[in-house]
């Protein structure tokens, strides 16, 4: 099993900073720029400390101490996603006059579908990540459903979570779409790979480029995750 066997479900880039009090004066300017940078961009909610945007390209959040851009089903290379992150975060840092990031994170969530939950759990166990043999533990005769690892240095950190999950997707298309089916219900079972890669040391805004960092981080995530998988 390799990372390429999984499909990208979502990606989020988050930048944290010290209290950016200019948010109280310049949120309107960020909103104005977002509408020109993204397609069908609308404000979903707005409070003094937080504004949530939704656009065709993804969703974004502007907050007092952090901002982030997220996309569901992004391109697997994250090339377009990285460009959209740059647009939004450049606007935020310019208007809020952010000079230093206290933390930058890239979180990617991927999923490999299986026919049943038991098949997903078996795939998780087959990786032998924790070196555990099949046995009853804590009075539970079942294979583990989730394994989590975290590594940190003084500069970087990463959290890797593998989880066998099952769920349902319920969709009711609006009448104007004239869909063939009035309702769509789909069950899924799969193995979810959730990787959060982040900085721990301060990063100068002028020294950080979103597309370069995101692309490099994704390559590292794929390379080292495959090594953990035994490839």
Quick structural gist:
This protein has helices spanning 23-37, 79-96, 117-126, 210-228; strands at 7-16, 42-47, 50-55, 58-63, 66-72, 100-101, 103-114, 146-152, 156-171, 184-199, 203-204. It is elongated and about 60 Å long. The chain has a 9-stranded antiparallel beta sheet with strand order 2-3-4-5-1-7-10-9-8, with helices on one face. A two-stranded antiparallel sheet has the order 6-11.
How would you explain this protein's 3D organization?
The chain has 231 residues and is α+β, with helices and mostly antiparallel strands. The protein has one domain (3-228). The chain has four helices and eleven strands. The strands form two sheets. A nine-stranded antiparallel beta sheet has the order 2-3-4-5-1-7-10-9-8, with helices on one face. β4 (58-63) and β5 form a beta hairpin. The longest helix has 19 residues, at 210-228. The chain starts with 6 loop residues before the first strand and ends with a helix. Residues 176-181 have low confidence and may be disordered.
Give the topology:
Layout: E1 7-16, H1 23-37, E2 42-47, E3 50-55, E4 58-63, E5 66-72, H2 79-96, E6 100-101, E7 103-114, H3 117-126, E8 146-152, E9 156-171, E10 184-199, E11 203-204, H4 210-228
Antiparallel strand pairs: 1-5, 1-7, 2-3, 3-4, 4-5, 6-11, 7-10, 8-9, 9-10
Order of helices and strands: EHEEEEHEEHEEEEH
Structural category: alpha+beta
Distance between the termini: 8 Å
Indicate the low-confidence ranges by residue numbers: 176-181
Largest beta-sheet characterization: 9 strands, antiparallel
Number of strands: 11
**Proportion of helical residues:** 25-40%
Rg calculated over all Cα atoms: 20 Å
Question: Order of strands across the biggest sheet?
Answer: 2-3-4-5-1-7-10-9-8
Number of domains: 1
Query: In percent, how much strand structure appears in the residues?
Result: 35-45%
Provide a count of the helices: 4
pLDDT average, as an integer? 88
Overall body shape: elongated
